[in-house]
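Let's practice the habit of predicting before peeking. Look at the sequence and jot down your guess about where helices and strands might fall. Then scroll down.
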Amino acid sequence: MWVHPEGAVQGALFVAVDNTGNEAEDPRSVLNTNSPFLVLKRYAPDEIRFYNRSSIIRVEYDEPPPQNADATRLPCTMMMMDGSIIDGKIHEFLPPEHARLYDYLNQADDRFIKIYIADNRVCLVNKSYIIQVTT
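Done guessing? Here is the structure:
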């Protein structure tokens, strides 16, 4: 996770589990809730921290992209306020009338959007830290 102004932070997000012990949330749903803070278990130092979602620039983790042919694939490059460049593809199930990159970026419900930056590597990007997006 990259946090402003701290920089890179390594740890594990706390996610809710259902009655069977399976995860009921994923990192994206944790980041896109309305509560201002989330919980992170830091690795070094070994401690629990509460981070303000507004100061989180991006979060990376491993997850395979959807294999369904119905998923819209939108290649793009994002220039971030911290100077980093994120290059990858968005794989989402989008209705045909809202399947443009412009539509996806302007979804009001999600603060963080998902982009696959490698075969099995996801980056959740805080839209408020994006300067520009190109295709």
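How did you do? The mean pLDDT is 90.
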